[in-house]
Structure formats: C-alpha cells, structure tokens
Amino acid sequence: MKHNLKLNIELVPASSWNNNLRSILKPYMWNNIRKEVYKRYNNKCTICATSGPLHAHEVWKYDDKNHVQCLTNIVALCKNCHAVKHFGLTELEDSKGKMDKEKIIKHFMKVNKCSRDIFLKHKTKAMKLFEERSKHDWLLNIGKLS
Fold first, then answer.
1. Pairing assessment for the beta strands 68-78 and 54-63 based on DSSP bridges
2. Is residue 5 one of the residues assigned to a domain?
3. pLDDT at residue 133 in the model
4. How many domains does the chain have?
5. Is residue 1 part of a domain?
6. Is the pLDDT of residue 1 over 80?
7. What is the Cα–Cα distance from 74 to 33, expressed in whole angstroms?
8. Average pLDDT of 55-69?
9. Quick one: average pLDDT of 50-56?
10. Can you give the residue range of the structural domain that contains 86?
11. Residue 80 lies inside a defined structural domain of this protein
C-alpha cells in the first residue's frame, strides 16, 4: 500500500550546506522575505496549520543529471515540521541533547497519519538520496530572485 505523505524529509546534500538564499542575502533582506512568507501563509504552518513561531523554509528542486538545485518556493513551517524536513540536523541536535528526535518522529506520524514503519522506510529512502546527492557539487539557481 502506497502512503501519500503530507510532510516529508528533504535532506539538503552535504555539498550544498549553507549554500542557500538565506546565506547569500544580507540579514535585513532575509528578514523581510521571511516576514512576507509568514504573511502569505496567514502566520500558520503550511503543512500542519499550527500558529506560533514559524521558520521560513526554502524548497528546492534538484536536477540530478546536471547537479543544479533550483529554489522553487519559500514556505512557512512550524518548528516541528521544519525539524522533519531537516531530519539529519535533528538527529545531530538530538545527539547533543538540544532536540528531542522522538518528538519529531511522532509529529511526522501524526501529520501523515502513519506508522513508525512508514516513517522508517521514508527516512531510509531520504538518506539514500542524500548520500547519492552529496557525492556531487551543486550549482545554485535561485530562480526569479537571481
């Protein structure tokens, strides 16, 4: 049975860490963009509709043949949905006692109405894709904003 996931893990290739719009822009510019994003999503998480503190999450499309990562959107996410998206970082933070990985896994299962087994299969698939993409250097394309 195929399970459609509303919330998924989106691991950025290691070779692209800190290669993003937020790192390119001056802090006040990024701050203006993220405030606009929050307003566009009515100050709610675009995935689980939670209100409260939000994060601006860059959505990337990857051309695996030409190794180009293209910015396609910036969305508002709650802390938990954002921690799922960057689950590798979540695991690292959990190992340092700075985050509760189990809480994030439970959030994934609640939002997707799925079992831990589905989470584990999805995580394994995301990690394989991460490992393959991390073998390459990626060209950054910020689309309309470039």
1. antiparallel
2. no
3. 97
4. 1
5. no
6. no
7. 9
8. 96
9. 93
10. 14-145
11. yes
